[in-house]
Amino acid sequence: MNRRDALTTVALAGAAMAATASAKADTAPTSTLDRIKKTGVLRIAVIAGQDPYFHKDLATNQWSGACIDMANDIAGKLGAKVEPLESTWGNQILDLQADKIDLAFAVNPTPERSLVIDFSTPILVHSFTVITKKGFAKPATWAELNKPEVKIAVDIGSTHETIARRYCPKANILGFKTRDEAILAVSTGRADCNVSLAVLSIFTLKKNPTLGELAIPRPLLTLPTNLGIRAEADRRYKDFLSAWADYNRSLGQTREWLLKAYETVGLSADDIPGEVQF
């Protein structure tokens, strides 16, 4: 091979390497924040039957609720619009991992979840409560529910299930796909009670006053609820959401979004038990 041929070979090899590098760059994963800004779309998980977080109008298929107001506020700051994807508490983590959504609301940051997704700082701190069926004695403690004859209805994959199994392992725990189904089990007598976050149970009992009664067993159990996002090296999206969460929580705006959703069924701040954190 003469010198001219050698130079040509080197040039061609360099061009091939550059083209390969360019192709890899084009297919490299884009950060969530960059994708949202580029497409102008913020994809979120929405969950039916989870008032006041989410409410679906069956006539129009339109979504409303506290988390929708929060999502619209976040999207507005990113120059995007909200695109909902119907999911469940158990599936929204999988939807994040599968890149179907960019944001999951009301996610409790458990150690197991932290291995597969990331979180913002808390948007709220929630208290756990119990809805008892009519005629069932209101429990003063979680230990009173921890008996084989007690039937507890929970929605599978939720922190409601986690709390029931952690504090009432001896009880007969009935798992249902949705919280609506778990509540129906209480109303029809198939279950004695339902474990729910206070923010949900207060709303449920206001809409269905004949369902049963609200109990706040001791010890008082609380957990932070956060925004769930995909784990990625680029921290800008996480930092933005954490700043958003801290800002709105400290100003009381997050509470106002929840109270606004409560107003749709005639609830006010005075209806919230003093023991309940919000």
From TrEMBL:
Residues 41-261 form the Solute-binding protein family 3/N-terminal domain. Pfam families: SBP_bac_3 (PF00497). Residues 1-25 form the signal peptide. InterPro entries: Solute-binding_3/MltF_N (IPR001638). Keywords: Signal. This is Amino acid ABC transporter substrate-binding protein (PAAT family).
